[in-house]
Specification:
The chain is mainly beta. The chain has a single domain (8-64), classed as Ribosomal protein L33 (Rubrerythrin, domain 2). It has one helix at 16-24; strands at residues 8-15, 32-38, 47-52, 57-64. A 4-stranded antiparallel sheet has the order 2-1-4-3. The longest helix is centred in the first third of the chain and has 9 residues, at 16-24. It is elongated, with a radius of gyration of 14 Å. This is Large ribosomal subunit protein bL33c. One of its GO terms (molecular function) is structural constituent of ribosome. Pfam families: Ribosomal_L33 (PF00471).
Length: 66
């Protein structure tokens, strides 16, 4: 049987360049993706390169707090 409870958690990834541009009011929105990660294998914050429809390019999306 499996040990422990929730090892996999649902996280939200947010575009880092859109959040920086939103302060300057250049971006029309902020791109967000949801995914799941294993807490034991990746205890640090996750960063993935994903497509941002607001920037029209692939940018780094970082994990944010809920």
């Amino acid at each position: 049987m499996a040990k422990g409870g929730n090892v996999r958690v649902t996280i939200t990834l947010e575009c880092t360049s859109c959040t920086q541009d939103s302060v300057n009011k250049k971006s029309p929105g902020i791109s967000r993706y949801t995914t799941r990660k294993n807490r034991r294998n990746t205890p640090l914050r996750l960063e993935l390169k994903k497509f941002c429809p607001y920037c029209y390019k692939h940018t780094i999306h970082g994990e944010i707090k809920k």
